[in-house]
Write a structure and sequence with these properties.
The protein is an alpha/beta fold. The chain is built from 10 helices and 21 strands. The longest helix is centred in the C-terminal third of the chain and has 19 residues. It is globular, with a radius of gyration of 21 Å.
Length: 397
């Protein structure tokens, strides 16, 4: 068994697979290995639509073996520790793998356990989440069974999250569904944050959706406990003076977005910053201390949206900089912080938010993308999934 590789990739999700594919397209003679324990590969951006009843969960899942690029070695194992001073890492099986260059695309960890009672309640009594493959279909079951007078809560934690718009997208689908079926419900967005969206142009349009659907906004509300049987949610609420209190809210349905963090096995490593994230130069995505280590995707501490669109722009930068590093050159390619958030605001309507570092707008199309668009909805529903499976994971864009 080979235990040393020229380029070792930690994680076989979007970031790791795309990086491997682009590296091998640039030079098919590179020695690339991917460490990934899962047999399955997921297209998570479609899980909102699964929860809304317009996409099939099975279409978001492929075999991991299908997406491993030709020429890359797949090491099917769990990483338990990183030893960057020795240019190596250790896996659950006890094997130690060394490298010339390491790419960390380890993703983000869903901390279901951080909300008391949540793990036990999920999938029953109206407690659901599109952030888990097992429960996104249950969200649709909850939506179909809505009735007059129901109270529906949607949560968002104060931690960084994968796809920051997802906590709201399903909420707007619920609102639209109720309008179309003349169901009178109470919808409330309970967020640990302080604003509906960080960029005013998009926030203004989202507020129109909030008003259209009659949604109540409750900011600085962090969910800390769920009692499914009693249908009670408990929040830690922080006021303007930083004083916290606990508030309970009854619900018939609650869509929960769990607190999130860097994976435990990474956050305690020498590669992590003080908050557990990959300590990167925000432009080159090279580690600040270990120059033969690069980061990609949700694991980064860079101030950009944690989205698949960000990975698509980060990957060519990392690939170019790794090739430069292997040639003894300084990394010159730079990432501008681009991220995209396709905000579904109803069935057949989508606001396409695109922005970079410092919330600089970076829109692609020659029209106002803050306005709800059917064309942009079709892009998310049909075009982007096709591009993902047929182009992105193959390293072709």
């Amino acid at each position: 068994m080979k235990t040393h590789h020229q380029i070792l990739i930690a994680g076989g999700g979007n970031a790791g697979i795309t990086a491997a594919a682009q590296l091998l397209r640039a030079n098919k003679y590179l020695d690339v290995a991917i460490i990934e324990p899962s047999d399955k590969h997921f297209y998570m951006p479609a899980w909102t639509l699964v929860g809304g009843g317009v996409y099939r969960m099975k279409d978001t899942i492929h075999e991991e073996a299908e997406v491993i690029p030709k020429g890359a070695q797949w090491i099917k194992d769990y990483i338990v520790s990183f030893e960057p001073d020795q240019n190596q890492l250790t896996t659950k099986s006890g094997n130690v793998y060394s490298y010339e260059v390491l790419i960390v695309g380890a993703g983000i960890q869903m901390n279901w356990h951080s909300v008391k009672g949540l793990k036990e309640a999920l999938g029953t009594n109206g407690v659901t989440s599109n952030y888990h493959k097992d429960y996104a279909p249950y969200t649709w079951e909850c939506l179909k069974n809505l009735k007059d007078g129901d109270v529906v809560l949607f949560t968002a934690p104060s931690t960084p999250v994968r796809c920051g718009g997802a906590p709201q997208k399903i909420m707007y689908l619920f609102g639209d569904y109720c309008r179309r079926h003349n169901i009178k419900v109470h919808i409330e967005f309970t967020s640990g944050g302080s604003v509906i969206f960080g960029i005013k142009k998009y926030a203004d349009e989202l507020m129109k959706m909030v008003n259209k659907y009659g949604i109540q906004l409750s900011f600085k509300h962090d969910l800390i406990a769920v009692d499914g049987a009693a249908k009670m949610a408990t929040y830690k609420v922080t006021d303007a003076n930083g004083i916290t209190t606990e508030v309970q809210k009854k619900f018939d349905i609650i869509h929960v977005v769990p607190p999130q963090s860097a994976p435990d096995y990474f956050s305690t490593s020498a590669l992590a910053d003080s908050k557990g994230w990959f300590d990167a130069d925000k432009y080159t995505l090279q580690h600040l201390r270990y120059k033969n280590v690069f980061g990609l995707g949700d694991i980064l501490n860079t101030p950009n949206a944690k989205t698949g669109a960000a990975i698509r722009k980060q990957t060519p930068v990392v690939v170019k900089n790794i090739l430069s590093f292997l040639n003894g050159e300084l990394p010159a390619a730079k990432y501008n912080g681009y991220g995209s958030c396709p905000l579904v605001v109803g069935y057949g309507k989508l606001i396409l938010a695109e922005f970079g570092y410092d919330n600089k707008l970076m829109e692609t199309f020659p029209f106002d993308q803050s306005k709800p668009s059917r064309l942009m909805y079709l892009l998310k529903r049909y075009v982007l999934p096709w591009l993902y499976w047929h182009k992105i994971v193959k390293g072709q864009m």
